[in-house]
Amino acid sequence: MFNETRLFDETTYSSFHGSIFTLSNAWDKFIDIDDYKDRPINYLEIGAYHGANAISVAHSYGLHPDSKLHLIDPWEDYSEYPEYKGKQEENYAKFINNIETSGVKNKMVVHRGHSKDKVPTFQDEYFDIIYIDGNHEPEAVLEDAVLSFRKLKHDGIMIFDDYGWGSPDLTQRGIDAFVSGYYKQIATTAKSASQLFARKR
């Protein structure tokens, strides 16, 4: 299974600037890395921020040299997040620096813009893993999930971050609404302390 120390060696994060939150080493209890180690994957991340999680995926589930990681983020001010006001160009610059120095830049495809505009441009059943960590308002999470689920392969996995963040009336409400509405198309779900995993039938 996945070795956590692999994500934090000097080569991987020595030049990293910015915040490092939950990384893909937290997924190993729910997603067996051995299922992905010998094949390329297509991966989608909504809400890339400084790029820490995407880099960890490239060094784990996306280890195959032909893997492609698509990252969507507008890096612009949101009224829902006043703490980031006026800081988004700095955040974007940190992200670009981190991707450039990650050693896995060739696997990354950056889509700067809103998920509601970018996700529909992908072909259906294209992604093996989709990670949703964008706007945490319930209606935004629900919209991201609905738009993205069509793009997920059968037996693919969708991961929601910050389940229970803020209060049950925020991110969790949007995630629960999706799981309830799409229950016929979801084979299994699993929860960690702050993330929910859903496998598509």
How would you characterize this protein structure?
The protein has 201 residues and is of the alpha/beta class. The chain has one domain: Vaccinia Virus protein VP39 (Rossmann fold, 3-Layer(aba) Sandwich). 25% of the residues lie in helices and 21% in strands. It contains 6 helices and 7 strands; from the N terminus they run H-E-H-E-H-E-H-E-H-E-H-E-E. The longest helix is centred in the middle third of the chain and has 13 residues. The radius of gyration is 16 Å and the shape is globular.
Give the secondary structure arrangement, pairings included:
Elements: H1 10-13, E1 42-46, H2 52-58, E2 68-73, H3 88-100, E3 108-112, H4 115-118, E4 127-132, H5 138-149, E5 152-160, H6 171-181, E6 186-191, E7 196-200
Parallel strand pairs: 1-2, 1-4, 2-3, 4-5
Antiparallel strand pairs: 5-7, 6-7
Helix pairs in contact: 5-6
CATH superfamily, by name, is: Vaccinia Virus protein VP39
What is the 3D form?
globular
- Number of helical regions: 6
Class derived from helix and strand content:
alpha/beta
Question: CATH topology, anyone?
Answer: Rossmann fold
Element order: H for helix, E for strand: HEHEHEHEHEHEE
Domain module count: 1
Rg, alpha carbons: 16 Å
**Order of strands across the main sheet:** 3-2-1-4-5-7-6
* CATH A-level architecture: 3-Layer(aba) Sandwich
Helical content class: 25-40%
For the record, the CATH class is: Alpha Beta
Strand elements, count: 7
Low confidence ranges: 1-8
Average per-residue pLDDT, rounded, comes to 91
Terminal Cα span: 24 Å
